[in-house]
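Show me any protein, fold above all:
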Amino acid sequence: MNSNPLAEATGSLEKHPDFPGLAESLFSLIHYRSSVQKKCAQLGEMECRLLNLLADELEAVRMNELAERLGVSESRITRLVERMVKKGLVTKHRSTRDRRSWEVGISRQGIDANVNVSAVSSEVQAELMARLPEAEHDLIYRNVKTYIETFHQVLENKDAELESSKDPLT
């Protein structure tokens, strides 16, 4: 049996015409939640991502590795780190293993800022769960998890498709 995912999806959209609007609302809520957390710590998105990454590390991380793990250029990570050093959120020093490299670690102030953002996130999540019917928590979890996993797969496929269709002369 040949199944056409696009046709099946179109059929589902006909049954639930408000789904694209609901999905867009979900994205807007996530963005808003993220902005509230960042405002609480007075940080930008990349600053929060960098602090989260460094908070999970036992040792300082080389700048080129940070750029790779965050998916940004080395020049962008350099500018980001310099701003964060000035704010006292991270420390930067020459690598003891390779004097040509720089390593970045999270400072005490950075740990505090990251904990603050995490605390706000936990508060928001707890309040959200408290307002949802407890009997539906498992169902909501499974459906949201499936939606997110599928969304990531679709984006990865679309990204690969767009990469492969690039004209090498442009």
About this structure: The two ends are 40 Å apart (CA to CA). The first strand starts at residue 61 and ends at 62. Residues 69 and 148 are 21 Å apart (CA to CA).
